Amino acid sequence: MAKYFDVHPENPQQRTIGSVAESIRSGALVAYPTDSCYALGCQLGNRDGLARIRSIRNLDDRHHFTLVCQDFAQLGQLVQVDNDVFRAIKASTPGSYTFILPATKEVPRQLLHPKKKTVGVRIPDHAVTQALLAELGEPLLSSTLLLPDEPEPLTQGWEIKERLDYLVDIVVDSGDCGTEPTTVIDFSGGEAEIVRRGAGDTTRFE
């Protein structure tokens, strides 16, 4: 049965955030809020957590997982970014964007696209996510909480607890954070390619 934490969306309780972060370090799979919608997250090297996310979402090995970063210092350790791409990303973050880029050797092989060797990265604009990342001191392996055969992600923490009670370890509830996933921009070819239109404005990438 999942632990349930009610967290203030703008002023998250530090003691609760610390408890969640410690559980993640110990192998927990967490459902948590972001600036686009709820997501599933675990520690970067957590193979069991990765397998559980794949199972919950029914994902194949071509799915791009997202590495959620606190800042550009973390992001720069995980992906290869040239100056032009860096400027484009910096102008859009923090925010509801996921950027697909060539991965560095810091990223576990099982997280990479099998042919392209790319990975998704993002820096969210959400107080709870940022507090959790700051407490963790490392990126979070993440995927949108969109269940198979459903058109939209789950939007309420209580509903996530009800439906995924025995599939996740922790539910962090900070209220409704929307149903629109991130906008996905693929920079792996050097130029911006809009893969998915979502919560982030695509104007600057068109």
From TrEMBL:
Residues 14-200 form the YrdC-like domain. It holds the Pfam family Sua5_yciO_yrdC. PROSITE patterns: YRDC (PS51163). SUPFAM superfamilies: YrdC/RibB (SSF55821). GO terms for molecular function: double-stranded RNA binding. InterPro entries: DHBP_synth_RibB-like_a/b_dom (IPR017945), Sua5-like_dom (IPR006070), SUA5_domain (IPR052532). NCBIfam families: L-threonylcarbamoyladenylate synthase. This is Threonylcarbamoyl-AMP synthase.
